[in-house]
Recover the amino acids of this structure.
């Protein structure tokens, strides 16, 4: 039987309040960290959380900062600070023994009109030193679809770098909002390097982060794709309350169990 590795999103500021709830549901936390939090992080608390996770034999995932950051930014100073923040986050991930870190691409067609290739070239040059650090930390990196209408640019980035430490995170809610390619085709295209999933729901108008099954997303193509794989990618349920997390967990187990 394929092992289902499920997690729940917890902001770093809420880790003390909600880690126990996640563990009680047998969920690994996906710990979301912002840039400023890296500069004021409580080292004692970090060690305490790492110890709790170790005692529970859980390797978490980490969600890197993304506001104002861009690995393919045209301005080299933005790329420089992006590398600094992502490297800092990888160091935190290493202390938590995280197995995976999620990164946003930071590109959209409105701010980068017809500049996909320019962004791609710079992003390809950006990631190698970070991937080298990730390998040292035994922590894979994944790039998450956000505003992408098609997966092509992210596929060219991941395939162009061609590392076992670098792959895709498919966010089904973002696809529902912005994707123009059918989910089945999108998933087929990224499947060879699909390492991680973000599951939540919405009605196609806003990033509502509703429990799975409470919006208008048809999860059937995802079910079909996962049924054909020899193993599941890791999965984070992106709920914004314990109640919604419990609802998503129950529905996800029904869908994929």
């Amino acid at each position: 039987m394929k092992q289902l590795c499920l997690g729940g999103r917890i902001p770093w500021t809420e880790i003390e309040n909600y880690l126990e709830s996640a563990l009680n549901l047998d969920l690994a936390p996906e710990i979301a960290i912002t840039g400023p939090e890296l500069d004021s992080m409580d080292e004692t608390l970090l060690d305490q959380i790492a110890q709790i996770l170790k005692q529970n034999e859980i390797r978490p995932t980490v969600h890197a900062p993304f506001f104002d950051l861009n690995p393919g930014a045209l301005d080299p100073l933005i790329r420089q600070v992006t590398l600094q923040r992502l490297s800092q986050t990888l160091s935190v991930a290493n202390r938590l023994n995280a197995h995976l870190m999620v990164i946003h691409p930071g590109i959209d067609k409105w701010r980068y009109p017809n500049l996909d290739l320019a962004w791609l070239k710079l992003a390809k040059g950006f990631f190698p030193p970070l991937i080298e650090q990730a390998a040292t930390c035994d922590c894979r990196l994944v790039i998450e679809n956000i505003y992408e209408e098609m997966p092509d640019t992210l596929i060219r980035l991941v395939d162009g770098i061609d590392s076992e430490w670098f792959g895709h995170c498919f966010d089904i809610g973002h696809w529902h909002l912005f994707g123009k390619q059918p989910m089945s085709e999108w998933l087929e295209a990224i499947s060879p390097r699909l390492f991680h999933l973000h599951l939540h729901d919405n009605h196609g108008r806003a990033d509502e982060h509703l429990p799975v099954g409470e919006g208008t997303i048809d999860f059937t193509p995802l079910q079909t794709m996962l049924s054909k794989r020899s193993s599941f990618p890791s999965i984070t349920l992106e709920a914004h309350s314990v109640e919604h997390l419990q609802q998503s967990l129950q529905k996800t187990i029904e869908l994929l169990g």
Summary: Residues 30 and 61 are 5 Å apart (CA to CA). The beta strands are 6-11, 28-32, 61-63, 100-103, 140-144, 166-171, 194-199, 234-237.
